[in-house]
User: Fold these one by one.
Assistant:
Number 1:
Amino acid sequence: MAGEARYAVDDGIAVVTIDNPPVNALGFAVRQAIIDAMDRAEADSNVMAVVLTGGGRTFSGGADITEFGKPPRKPSLPDVNRRCETMKKPVVAAIHGFAFGGGLEVSLSCHGRIASADAKIALPEVKLGLIPGAGGTQRLPRLIGPEAALDVIVPGNPVTAEKALEMGIIDRTAEGDLLAAAKDHARDIASQANPPVALRDREDMLEATRQNPSSFEAHAAALTRKAHGLEAPHACVRAVRMALDTPFDEALAKEREMFIELMHGDQSKAQRHLFFAEREAGKVPGIPSDVTPREIRKAAVIGGGTMGGGIAMSLVNGGIPVTILEMSEEAIERGLGVIRRNYETSVKRGSITQEECDLRLSRLATTTLYEDIADADLVIEAVFEEMAVKKEVFARLDAVMKPGAIMATNTSYLDVDEIAQMTARPSDVLGMHFFSPANVMKLLEIVRGKESAPDIIVTALKLGKRIGKVPVVVGVCHGFVGNRMLSARMEETEDLLLEGATPVEVDKAFTDFGFLLGHFGMADLAGLDIGWRTRKALGKTAAIADALCEAGRLGQKTGKGFYNYEDGPRDGKPDPWVDTLIEEKARELGINRRAIDATEIIERTVYPMINEGARILEEGIATRPSDIDIVWVYGYAFPVGKGGPMHWAEQAGLKHIVERLEYWHGRTGKAVFAPSDLLRRAAESGSSLSETLSAGGKAA
Ligand code: NAD
């Protein structure tokens, strides 16, 4: 297995180097090569101890997830771990870069672990809808205790070497030459009279929890409180719990069974789909890979309101100095006040330190003068959603910004090409559509205008990633990808109320489907005036939502909307006033209200969204179905376990979706239900949306 794991002996130490670029994934050939190398080291009389390390920039990113869902090939990762653990000579894992998932599990089967100071470790399987399936749930509790193991396994987040040392996951950190330090560590262990006991044989760290299981249960409950319908976090807890009451080998076998069952389940398939989708989303057809991004050293944001403030926070959090331009000193103070309060809350919660808060605030400047932002490399406009205001802002930007500055608009719906025409340099203009709250939500729709230069798209993608967003490139149309699909369901939710459903029933159907918030709960949170203003601009109406706005009920911010928030923003109560309003409006429109069940609610709201998504693909507004999934999961909290609307549609069956759309189209005659050509063709041929697109559609 040349090239998959190198073997060399140096001064009594066998160094086994995993060599599978780019991340040393533990695919079949690597697994076999590690076992062969261990056999060789054990048989080699010149070897007293072994160091297991990774070639290139990292130890190991874990399992080769392209093998998931395929027939398993022996040796498995548990076989590799057993081989390391039962070696008669000590094995030390030398970790640099990262040891994630299976990578960390292999190191837990070694007799010692040493890491370079900037290394990171993690068991992130939960993020793919899985549990660690190669002993991690049994060995880690034996090393650091069951509750600390839950802290690593249930959230699945990376842990720094410093923290890992403090937790006892690694024995030492190395400042300089990791390999030399690892060899010394291996020699130390080999020369000990009582070498370390393999984790499989240790029980000492389990005893306290066995005596007091209630603290474990309370800890587990707190960690899984936000699992939101996902099975994997609960399965992680069940697996770790086995360490307390199930013999090691039996628990390992059960852990593997649980892992395989989850791997074949819909949720893990959906989460793995999203994992790949996120990586795909960064690839933009038609932009050569050698296009160089522009340098972004300083930025400006026009408008320091809800979005401008959040965008500025995202930028300064990513280390980019920002100047906010507002209309008046009062507006500046109002905006800065919100930003300061947000940071203070983060400090109080302990998510950032006071020093970090001060540092971030020090990167913020404000002004009312365009001259002050002229030398920014990037300016993001977030003023009122009115074309005339946006046009005026872009004309002024064109007059002052230095050559090469990128000019972005955060518009939700407006035509980016029309805005770009206000400048003499439309190739420097694009949309950067953040989601509210912009400092929290991960989605960034990068709107590529007709004339946007390739290098500004690449710059926006790079910047998006730098500030922790998940960027997706989309084309220009009313509402781009996310809001356009949202509009497709909006009209129907109003009609469901008029025809007989209550806001509570509609929202329950949504939360039962897996959304964090129901449609009306979300509308109240965002503010009903946003849709109201958009409808007015388009000459549209919505009987109930318009009436609520006219009554001053704009949602949470006014204490009332579809729900009543008098008991607090998180505690919206159904409001009889709204029920009466709905009944009156239905009567005025001559509608006989009837009982409406959850299936109908989902078919009439989620299915039109899928239909609109398919149209978006046909028009080339989104590149691939998985880009739409990313938009919905990261921008609108579509249930992660369903993988996004397009993935879910394929799981539910496109034929079924088309049949139901046709049914509702026949009953209502509404255009939102008329199945798109793409959906129809995919359903007829039995192919996926991607296959159907490449067979004769527009996008890739
Ligand atoms: P907002 O009303 O909270 O903030 C707008 C800010 O812009 C105000 O502080 C105002 O003083 C300032 N402003 C207005 N005209 C200006 C000008 N000519 N020069 C300088 N400053 C000016 O609005 P918002 O919710 O932050 O929305 C801003 C933009 O972001 C809109 O285009 C909106 O569609 C878009 N957007 C909003 C959301 C959301 O959920 N709120 C989400 C995504 C995108």
Number 2:
Amino acid sequence: MTWLITGGAGYIGAHVVRAMTEAGERAVVYDDLSTGRADRVPDGVPLVVGSTLDGERVARALTDHEVTGVVHLAAKKQVAESLSLPLHYYRENVEGLRVLLDAVTAAGVRSFVFSSSAAVYGMPDVDLVTEETPCVPMSPYGETKLAGEWLVRATGRAAGLSTACLRYFNVAGAARPDLADTGVSNLIPMIFEKLADDLPPHVFGDDYPTPDGTCVRDYIHVVDLAEAHVAAARALRAAPGRDLTLNIGRGEGVSVREVIDRVNTLTGHDRPPVVTPRRPGDPPRVVASADRAATELGWKARHAIDDMITSAWAGRQHPHPPTTARP
Ligand code: WQD
């Protein structure tokens, strides 16, 4: 059985490819390298460079590599960018998925794991978010992930595809320094950026209804997230006709101020943050109930916030090769 992993040259994708191959699964990466890097694809794993919008190319990849399962990670994922470029996000994340699903059903692929997001929940007002919590996305990015789930589930029911929609919470950390997230659009890398410039980290509002007034999130180590994909892929292969929707989080909340304090301590800095105005659209608290993933997959996150911070920090020190060519 070969898994086609779209977006497998990206930050999360590279960790999923690593986890799948280390678990003995055969993989082929399909990536347009718009943000991914070819040097993240391990030796021995074929790389097909292309967009999921290119139906012919993806169909050829499915047949050439005798693909029987797909893990679809390729997507645009910046909330703020989606607000200014909604049609770009709908084209890439929804139309790209539709074209892929067309090719997947035509090729007789049996299993489909879809990268969804906690952004589908929008502004949940519950202590722990379950998969039954109403989905009211607050950004075009979150809307495209919810629409993506609808496409995946409907196609699964119509074509007898076994599907799993994995709702990622806040992903951080790295398995190795060279696989660290090079984007700077989330809290931990943004703190690093400030510290690297000898500037205080910013807290986007400290007047939220939370214990210390700052927003609370559920941070999940990318290695744990990748292992959840292996567990989901194997669950779909083992029992055809599955239709899973799962939160992938730790089930524990950490506040912005707590993250900043841990980063200062773990990286040897002492830079108290400055409080700036709230960022529009930020929910006070988004923390997963991860019970269903434990029940359905036997999966549970193993790494704590300190592991995420120290492994991400080690990645910052690692100079990335200037080229995206494979080694
Ligand atoms: C976390 C908290 C900020 C930077 C989004 C998507 C989600 C997922 C992760 C893809 C917020 C605060 C941040 C800073 C701060 N992406 N913050 N100072 O917004 O929870 O989630 O990215 O799936 O789907 O919705 O993540 O890391 O941007 O922010 O105070 O310099 O940190 O206000 O409360 P977010 P984030």
Number 3:
Amino acid sequence: MNVLGIESSCDETAAAVVTDGRVVRSSIIWSQIDQHAPFGGVVPEIASRSHLNAIVPVVNDALGQAGMTLDDIDGLAVTIGPGLIGALLVGVQFAKGLALGLGLPIVGVNHIEAHFMAAFLTDSLPKFPFVALAVSGGHSSIFRVDDFGRFTLLGRTLDDAAGEAFDKAAAMLGLPYPGGVAIDKVAKNGNPASVAFPRSMIKEPGYNMSFSGLKSAMRRHVEGRVLSDQEINDAAAAFREAVVDVLVAKTMSAAVDCNVSDIVIAGGVAANSRLREVLGQRTAEKGLILHALPLELCSDNAAMIAGLGHQYLFGACSDFDCPRGLDMDPFTRLVATGG
Ligand code: KG4
Ligand code: ZN
């Protein structure tokens, strides 16, 4: 079964074809970063218009890369939320039109669930139940995942997402958007102990997190000063260390408390080299298995949408209640399941 996945929740227009929920036949990601970079963040109206321009060529490229035509497609999956509503609508309405025209089944997929279930597109399959850390520009959440379609939110950020904090801190340091990538790069030449940034909520019970205090601390650190290149590297390294400490502490305690053997990290921030390094060390010490997704599956992509869509349309959770068919509506069903 070939599922065509479409993703347009934020600043990437993406389409992919996945066979039997496991084999990625193509994955095209058209990034809008250049259009948003001058503003230091994603501008929703620009995102929606840009998706409109990109969606037809991106879907055609995904079919072409897979060596397929629309006749080879058995079903469609599209991100239904969470995300920017105008941006989501472009993907949802395009996918609905295609499904209606071709007479194919269609399912709306939760973007966050798709991030961590992208582990099933790799060769290193996580064992249920596992703990998943989904960290990106819009979300930072920890889940216990019991099966396909069955997961529980254990904790989440109470304010900024980790990626959002990276983006804002980078802007304060004069680094380019997307800030997480830029901070990760310059932090390699900085001293993480140079600034004592707070680790909010790290000692509190439970798995909720907070990054807005850290962001304010960065603001206070840079206010009224012109930082040298070395001071920028140092502040970036110290900031990255603070974010990583919180994410690692909360994820590890969730894994231990839930008595799982496997941890999945997914989402754009899961590309962070220090997060992968520290969590790799900590899981090895405890005899746990870390599934840090390959970088191309960390940031937004449509393979994760097609892969999970397969499970809802034809696979493990085809009997589940989720936004399916042409009546699905991103206005009323922003979060399909769990998150
Ligand atoms: O998952 P994603 O591509 O889009 C959303 O769903 O938000 O994540 C984008 C976020 C941005 O905030 C970006 O700064 C962050 O992921 N990011 C990183 C790294 N690469 C991307 N953050 C920290 N370190 C990185 N290497
Ligand atoms: Zn995402």
Number 4:
Amino acid sequence: MSRPVIWIPRRLSDATLDRARRDYEVILKDEDTAGTADEIIALSAKVDGMIPCHSEHFSADVVGRLDPRLKIVANHSVGLDHCDIPALKSKGITVTNTPDVLTDATAELAMLLMLGAARHAVAGDRVVRSGAWDFWSPAFMVGKQVTGSRLGIVGMGGVGRALARKARGLDMEIHYHNRTRLAPELEGGATYHDSLDSLLEVSDFLSLNCPATAESTGMMNAERLAKLPAGAVLVNAARGSLVDETALVEAIESGHLAAAGLDCFVTEPGGNPDFARFDNIFMMPHVGSATVKTRDAMGFRALDNLDAFYRGETPGDAQ
Ligand code: 8YV
């Protein structure tokens, strides 16, 4: 039997590509750039499966124009907001993601954002690196202490819980809001808030760790940001669409927020040029899961899902 043909639009880890080539006929894109709608549609007539990233968008329009040859979209991501899942399913296309394996790397990055935002990492690095550091005072670059502060987590899934575990190492008091309250063994002593507004009121640091959905789009708007304690720090390592970026600029400009740490933006790649005015916005370019170990694990998880599909089984991460 001939081997299934799969399209891998982005530069996945070497170990992933080696394993993929061992088991499948692999078509790679010439350049490591986001697959466009036209490319996705054209390739769907040439391949049986795809391993896209969050950079390839399967909107209802794109899905409507896919060739019936394509049978599985085995995403290399936990987030699925780039996929219109009902549209894909109604076309009989199996959709999978890669949960769990990027939990720790993403929580690590959220922690980095929290610490970097709280302790003036952008300004500190710049002043030393540029050779402009000619002054020191006890009043210089005084930040906000993370240890012992209250951390509010929106979305207590895998990443939220991993962040809570790491934050306990800094003696943080953990609060969370989630659609449903977790079992005590998963809560680990964290305080549950049945409304987002109640969580905001106690969050010296607020970390967004929930998926981007129609309901969560623009969730952190002006009204919600105003509910955070004065001097709070906002961290977003989930999705840019959760934050109203204009309202965030206003909250930073007014001083209501002390700082923000962002790995995700409404526009990606690119980010928001308005944020560059503020040294107290510490930014990374959507690299939450970008560690060697995690990239291999994500690639292998996507391949595990493909393998199960081609064995005639329902993949473990089928949606
Ligand atoms: C990934 C992510 O790097 O998995 C996700 O949902 O946001 C990222 O950490 C990316 O999606 C890879 O496709």
